[in-house]
């Protein structure tokens, strides 16, 4: 590969469908897909017609729901699926010499025009065993899609689910994703920014994600900015024109005199506050008078950071500018946020500056879902969380286990047996219906054979547990939603795709249909996924046919 082609491969290009990640290409797969393709081809299976389901078996994060994501990227992959000349050349060199040359001609002409892809709407809540995608088409081609589709759906869905959980824990508070530096490489970082936005984050610090996906980009500054100043004499400029115009004023002088006034209110000694920190705040305020946000924990939040911040914010106020707030990045975040809010309230009252009471308090530092829930219990005054490591690495569970299993070949059902019933695949071409109660709550997902009639509104339908015979229930739905829709057929995306913020809204709307006990953090109730009477019978008959009878001796 030349240097240029490597650079190109990593390039993310703009297409009619938004941005396309060019790492996503047919060779982004496991070798065994290509060796299987050759063996299928060699044994004359080019005309075999297959149906595969993509599904997972267990919800992540000890939860009872998952958010489905990665569909748009999967469709873009199908659209661009093509082995380039250099791909074919690479495969020729890599596969054994015994491979028929004609196979490479066959590969070079492959496309996904004969593939049909059904999927659940991106951003929907989904559950174990429900096909998130059903892919139909020539066996060889569908098999070749497996790994890439899984890599596109697994992390995207895990990330969107993680973000949605943080969103539930944080309620209406602002959530910013700060994870790029700790993410699983550049592509992991970009995906994390994208899918955490879908899951309910409000913005990201990742500038490229902002540009590519139109996500709001936000940020403050680092401790290095604060420690780069040691005293006020280092300030090269501290002059600022008031917002309404007029003569330059000296922000440094104003801030120093405010700091003196505030020491009695804060019951601290001005000597204890760091002059380097004050200088850093002044210089940042002069650079961003309308966007002044200060990192206050470099030396001591109570004795230095808050005092210096308030002094500079009041100096800015003298010139008609409103500061934004503070970020606290260490210590007891509940306690310090309460202290900070108290300071802001007192200043607001004493100097009659109403907006001061509502200054933003951002907290960061190794925050995860549990920290947010614990902070809620303790009582805090944080308005915004900046979250990196735990969010983007999905530290609590680093992978979602979506699999891609054949369920039908040439019209005949296929089934993978397992000692573990949870791993037995649901054979045949199936559809999925979500049944809703009168109040709009999702009651159950019902899997049926595609040949069966859809359940009808206000008509009683029997829903069975797929494996436990005694577990069954009648449901009379007030609404029936067919979950699998056709997205790709005859070489085209046939359903208009939502943009990122529409998918983000879909996540919240879909979560609202779940009862609170299914979404709670501790010991949530599982959502029921059932099969129809016919599918139950079909599954168990086939199971008996396929399971060998052992002989004891
Ligand atoms: N009130 C709180 N309740 C629960 N967890 C908290 C609270 N305040 C902070 N935390 C969490 O506790 C951990 C504290 O981290 P750590 O022990 O590294 O201390 P630190 O404050 O970062 O210290 P340092 O000043 O050395 O950086 C972080 O994960 C943080 O999110
Ligand atoms: O804590 P996270 O959830 O990953 O959020 C992002 C962190 O990244 C920054 O820290 P930095 O990289 O400067 O290192 P630190 O660990 O010393 O704070 C920032 O100050 C946050 O603490
Ligand atoms: O803008 C910030 O405050 C930020 C960005 C990335 C990581 N930590 C903090
Ligand atoms: Mg940190």
Automatic annotation (TrEMBL):
<comment type="pathway">
    <text>Cofactor biosynthesis; NAD(+) biosynthesis; nicotinate D-ribonucleotide from nicotinate: step 1/1.</text>
</comment>
<keyword id="KW-0597">Phosphoprotein</keyword>
<dbReference type="InterPro" id="IPR036068">
    <property type="entry name" value="Nicotinate_pribotase-like_C"/>
</dbReference>
<dbReference type="InterPro" id="IPR041619">
    <property type="entry name" value="NAPRTase_C"/>
</dbReference>
<keyword id="KW-0662">Pyridine nucleotide biosynthesis</keyword>
<feature type="domain" description="Nicotinate phosphoribosyltransferase N-terminal">
    <location>
        <begin position="27"/>
        <end position="154"/>
    </location>
</feature>
<dbReference type="InterPro" id="IPR041525">
    <property type="entry name" value="N/Namide_PRibTrfase"/>
</dbReference>
<dbReference type="InterPro" id="IPR013785">
    <property type="entry name" value="Aldolase_TIM"/>
</dbReference>
<comment type="similarity">
    <text>Belongs to the NAPRTase family.</text>
</comment>
<feature type="domain" description="Nicotinate/nicotinamide phosphoribosyltransferase">
    <location>
        <begin position="325"/>
        <end position="425"/>
    </location>
</feature>
<feature type="domain" description="Nicotinate phosphoribosyltransferase C-terminal">
    <location>
        <begin position="429"/>
        <end position="538"/>
    </location>
</feature>
<keyword id="KW-0436">Ligase</keyword>
<comment type="function">
    <text>Catalyzes the first step in the biosynthesis of NAD from nicotinic acid, the ATP-dependent synthesis of beta-nicotinate D-ribonucleotide from nicotinate and 5-phospho-D-ribose 1-phosphate. Helps prevent cellular oxidative stress via its role in NAD biosynthesis.</text>
</comment>
<dbReference type="Pfam" id="PF04095">
    <property type="entry name" value="NAPRTase"/>
</dbReference>
<dbReference type="InterPro" id="IPR006405">
    <property type="entry name" value="Nic_PRibTrfase_pncB"/>
</dbReference>
<keyword id="KW-0808">Transferase</keyword>
<dbReference type="Pfam" id="PF17956">
    <property type="entry name" value="NAPRTase_C"/>
</dbReference>
<protein>
    <recommendedName>
        <fullName>Nicotinate phosphoribosyltransferase</fullName>
        <ecNumber>6.3.4.21</ecNumber>
    </recommendedName>
</protein>
<dbReference type="Pfam" id="PF17767">
    <property type="entry name" value="NAPRTase_N"/>
</dbReference>
<dbReference type="InterPro" id="IPR040727">
    <property type="entry name" value="NAPRTase_N"/>
</dbReference>
<dbReference type="InterPro" id="IPR007229">
    <property type="entry name" value="Nic_PRibTrfase-Fam"/>
</dbReference>
